[in-house]
Amino acid sequence: MPHLKVKPFDSQRFDAVVAKRDSVLKERAVCKKGPKELLLVGENGKEFILELKKKEKEWLLRCDSVSRPLDVELIKRILASLAKEAGLEILHSNIESTRERVTIASRYDKKIDDFEKGIFPYDRVALEVGFGSGRHLLYQAGKEPDRLHIGIEIHTPSAQQVLRQIALRKLENIWVLNYDARLLLEMLPSNLAEAIFVHFPVPWDKKPHRRVIGSSFVSEALRVLDIDGILELRTDSENYYRYALEIFSEAKRVRFEVKKNEELPVVSKYEARWRREEKNIYNLTLYSMEKSPQREICTDFSFCAKVSSETIGKLPPDSLVFDEYFIHFTRVYDRVYSKGYIVEVSFGNFDKPEHKYLFIEEDGSVNYFPSRPVANKTNMRAHKKIGELLDVHQ
User: Fold this and answer.
1) For the chain, what is the largest distance between any 2 Cα atoms, rounded to a whole number of angstroms?
2) Coil, strand, or helix at residue 6?
3) Which tens digits make up the pLDDT trace of 164-184?
4) At 324, phi and psi to the nearest 5?
5) How far apart are CA 258 and CA 65, in angstroms?
6) Intra-chain end-to-end CA distance of the chain, in Å
7) Is residue 378's pLDDT more than 80?
8) Residues 41-55, buried b or exposed e (16+ Cβ, 10 A)?
9) How many DSSP H helices and E strands does the chain contain?
10) How does pLDDT run across 316-350, given as a tens digit for each residue?
11) Cα–Cα dist 292/290, whole Å
């Protein structure tokens, strides 16, 4: 990821920067405990957070993992602009491009907010979870031009590379989301998709609870799939295959088929290597056999009252664990320019948590950043508890 290592300086130097017209710097926040600051930056309405981590001989300035955009060139431009405006003495930098890079197809770089209304520009939809190199996703998009292909990938470089390929191939029917697919499924409309592909997921043999395939995932996938829609798992791991076979067998009113060493028209470089090594490739395909009711859940993640500095000081330092969810306030920052606070918080399901910032304004109002949580029952319960802890009356 793009970053700068700079000589330590007086961070009040940023105060003159933020006052400049069209500055990339919007806000600075100082951690109450520990040598760390946050910088809210952005251009053309695209905002994200930079972390300033302070060590004795050098400071590290980089994008955070919660709000990081897929557009690497945007991050580089803002880092360069901020360093120039603040007159930072750079000790090390990786923001200079060593070769000409293809611009990513940013209009197809989607955020979780883009799925809230459930509006899609195509009548037909397919999803691919963990698309890796993107060969299968790109092939499907070319093969089915009248279908929207939503690719979900938590590995940022893979998502960036596919966005570059979209630009090179001039494809218009792919959306790319850098997010947890399990959370996305929970907010999609019922009976939406024709297919959900999960090809060669990480087997997690020593940590099976981290596998993307699980009972709740299959349940949500069947809800999102239309009649005769398919959930297709392809894996080289016999352990994963046997595990998934058991999970698929628990589903009701479905049919599934098992194939072994079936050849597809397009394969990843890893699958090609596994074929050369004569490894077995397992295919499990689950077919949806009925319509599902639309989900009904409250989607109001607003806070309806004010937060005081006294309340902020009383936030619990340790994780709070409840029956079905947890809450952990990681760090609290004092906002310099607006006199409010920024609170790092993780919450929700133990296996698929949300990581957000709470932006608390000078008047005590609260908003999530960079986006609202996914609307599911677990997150709603956690949200209400966060409101209680902030002494916000819902």
Assistant:
1) 65
2) strand
3) 999 889 999 999 999 999 999
4) -125, 5
5) 38
6) 40
7) yes
8) bbeeeebbbbbbbee
9) 10, 19
10) 999 999 988 999 999 999 999 988 999 999 999 99
11) 6
Q: Which of 370, 373, 283, 287 is nearest to 325 (CA)?
A: 373
Distance of CA 340 to the CA centre of its chain: 26
Provide the token pair at 279.
């490894």
Cα distance between residue 346 and residue 295, in whole Å:
25
Our measurement of the distance from residue 31's CA atom to the centroid of its chain's CA atoms, rounded to an integer in Å, reads 24
Burial state string for 72-105 with b = 16 or more CB within 10 A and e = fewer than 16: bbbbbebbbbbbebbebeeeebebeeeeeeeebb
For 331, list phi and psi in degrees, rounded to 5. -145, 155
Residue 195: exposure state from Cβ atoms within 10 A (0-12, 13-18, ≥19): buried
Rounded CA-CA distance 267/130 in Å is: 14
The three-class DSSP label of residue 328 is: strand
Q: Is 288 helix (H, G, I), strand (E, B) or coil?
A: strand
Q: How far apart are CA 202 and CA 235, in angstroms?
A: 9
pLDDT for residue 189: 93
**Strand order through the sheet with 109-110:** 109-110, 174-177, 147-152, 124-129, 193-199, 225-235, 282-288, 254-260
Class at the top of the CATH hierarchy for domain 106-288: alpha beta
pTM: 0.86
Give me the residue spans of the domains in the chain: 3-93, 106-288, 309-389
Cα–Cα dist 51/2, whole Å: 12
Closest among 78, 101, 99, 102 to 4, alpha carbons compared: 78
C-alpha dist (Å) from residue 332 to 253, 259, 304:
48, 52, 21
